[in-house]
Amino acid sequence: MENRENISIDNLSTEERLILPSQATSAIAVVKTKQQRDELYRQSLENPQEFWADMASKHLDWFEKWDTVEEYDFDSDRPYVKYFSGGKLNASYNCLDRHLTGSRRNKAALIWQGESSDETRTFTYQQLHREVSRTANMLKNIGVSKGDRVVLYMPMIPELVFSVLACARIGAIHCVVFSGLSAESLSDRIVNSDAHIIITANYGYRSGKFLECKSICDKAMELSPQIRTCVVVERVERETYMVRGRDLWWHDLMVDAALTCEPEPMDAEDPLFILYTSGSTAKPKGILHTTGGYLLHAMMTVKYVFDIKDEDVYWCTADIGWITGHTYLIYGPLANGGTTLMFEGVPTYPQPDRYWEIVEKFGVNIFYTAPTAIRAMMKDGDHWPNNRDLSTLRILGSVGEPITSKAWMWYYNVIGQGRCPIADTWWQTETGGIMIAPLPGAIDMKPGSVTLPFFGIVPKILRNNGSEAGINEGGNLVLTRPWPGMMRGIYGNPSGFKDTYFPHHGYYLTGDGAYQDEDGYFWMLGRVDDVIKVSAHRIGAAEVENALASHDKVVEAAVVGYPHPVKGEGIYAYVTLEEGVDATESLKKELIVHVREKIGPIATPDVIHFTPALPKTRSGKILRRILRKIATWDIDGWNVEDLGDVSTLADSSVVDSLLATRS
Ligand code: WT7
Predict the structure, then answer these.
(1) What span, in angstroms and rounded, lies between the C-alpha atoms of 407 and 391?
(2) Which of 67, 114, 156, 482 has a CB 3.0–4.6 Å from the CB of 86, allowing a cystine?
(3) Kind and range of the H or E run holding 286
(4) 608-609-611 Cα angle (round to 5)
(5) pLDDT digit string (tens) for 454-488?
(6) Where does ligand 1 bind, in terms of residues with CB under 6 Å?
(7) Tell me: the pLDDT tens digits for 222-234?
(8) Could you tell me the distance, in angstroms and rounded to a whole number, from the CA of residue 425 to the centre of ligand 1?
(9) Is-cis flag, bond preceding 350, omega within 30?
């Protein structure tokens, strides 16, 4: 397989091989034993039609029953997958209306904690239903109809949840763009999704500073004038530049919005949303998810993996700009009738115990975050969590990047106080929901392992030549059959689905390395392509390279990831400058600012290494293996011989100059 390099299994310490028995998390957990899990898993594979039909009728409310359950083809040149075709449902109805008849009507659906401690808002199911219905009518009033794309470029405020569910209610396709992305990134997504409506806020709060949402939107709209209407939430009372006729205040529009709105009956295979994510190419891909299968996957994983109960307060710390926020802050918990908590701020502001203060304040029971946050908090010291009451916590989740056994043990002992099972959950934007994770209480844990596949999921580890790897042998993680939450395609790029995910017939290629141990447990080894996981965010090396190369003093650039103690991976950029340009510290700063403006702060290079040339083969291919090795010089302390075979280089003196130019 192209781009695949040797994947080795780290030397496993005894701690990493520790097996922690599952704890009964609750007497009423849905799946209580390994035997029960194995039995359900067996059913999901032996008779998927019956299994998914049963789950869909049990877990979702349908206006009309489907014609077919599962249809797919992974072998042809046009791979596809469909679930519940012909079935009619509405995602917002399943997240709201169906909870209004019984005792859930007056329970908290959404608890919102602002960045400032004294700003809190709580919406019961009845209230959230009403806000979403009004927002849906507001969208209709400005001309949005079924199938239209609506871009949401908003900070973590309740209006973002209203907007997502309002789109779902009227059958518009939401396209959330993370509010930390640049005007250019936003404009690319507006153009690619062909949206005419955008919703934003005038400002947001981030670590005590303002996020300039509206002015970034203004710049993006200059680059993509197709936007007809920009709806602006007044998050901060502060002067805001508004263009007459184009920019409209949310609160003005809401005055005319009726209180009730019938949910649009959608086909299970009608699009629900597009979400952009990075890959090996320079432009992010618009991952398309549809309604029925996605919602079932979201609903079921929150039920079985997080064991959500009516009395729980459930908190997923992800931003709604990413898939984790879509599936595990909005759709999954609300489809279950749960109480979902939403936090506007960051873990370390104003103090390193912000998360634990919130856990204590609301009595959070289920907590789901990324290893990068765990490592950052671990570094700040145990006294922060120890001074808070964390006794309500029942289940802890981890997602987004590999968690080391050290961070796992800290999460388990210090945050969970040895009481809470940890669900390390492996999945991707493309998979829609959790794919490999323990069912807490039923599956024994091994610190650092994502354990076993969810129902219906068949992962395999393949060698680069396509043969199946042996036990404990690292290889490429692939998925050999479909599941309901799977992406349906790349928006506006019909051949992209096949080219990117099915370069080989018969299975979906994840882009991750992994191995399976003697108990069948999976261990993730990180990406095997040119995707870098920086603080659990997914960044394409090619995107950063393009951004750097667009600077007029730069000839070319090559970017690789390197191990970073808090971020997981850092961004290491090799840059070749135009003839006669001086390699100065101030130019490094200038390039960093340039990348932040092009992509956004999440893509900020950690290291810029000026080099007279890049290591290339005779055919001009950059040898990233060498660049990765040199980037870890300080960490690994290797010898020049460790660079391996450099005979394929067109000019082997490049290695010497790369070594000489390290700073
Ligand atoms: C990539 C997907 C999963 C939703 C949030 C990120 C990495 C994700 C784990 C995990 C090791 C993980 C993979 C994957 N990843 N979860 N538990 N252990 N690695 O979604 O931005 O689409 O990123 O995140 O490399 O391919 P995403």
Answers:
(1) 20
(2) 67
(3) strand 285-290
(4) 140
(5) 999 999 999 999 999 999 999 999 999 999 999 99
(6) 277, 323-324, 399-402, 424-429, 450, 510-512, 524, 527, 533, 538
(7) 999 999 999 999 9
(8) 8
(9) yes
